[in-house]
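Lab channel / #folding
Pinned by the channel admin:
"Please post every new chain as: sequence first, then the structure tokens as a reply. Keep commentary short and put observations after the output so the thread stays searchable."

First post following the new format, from NK:
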Amino acid sequence: MVRVLFISLILFTSCKSNKSTDQFLSKDVMKEILKSVQIIESKYQHQKVIDSEIALYNLKSNYDSIFTLHKINDSLFIENLEFYSNNPKMLEEIYKNVINELQIEKQKLP
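Reply from TO:
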């Protein structure tokens, strides 16, 4: 799944906004972003079977929505993803929390 995320991010790097900062996102914020990313990546995997062009458009739109919600851009997200990837214990902790929260949400579904 992480490989799909990196491939997707590479596709969208051409859509960078002009906002550029060197700040790092907190683990909680990164967790929320990665949780949203996992959900949209899952939707993309399902949708691309039906129509890959629409699925890719929706994926880009969903990434843009996540970035807008968290007031970041794709560059800042990638910088933070690289930062946390270089700190595997922190990234593992974040992903454990993402998985736990997604499992809880899944149990609430009808």
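NK: Residues 26-108 form one domain.
TO: also worth noting, The longest helix spans residues 27-50.
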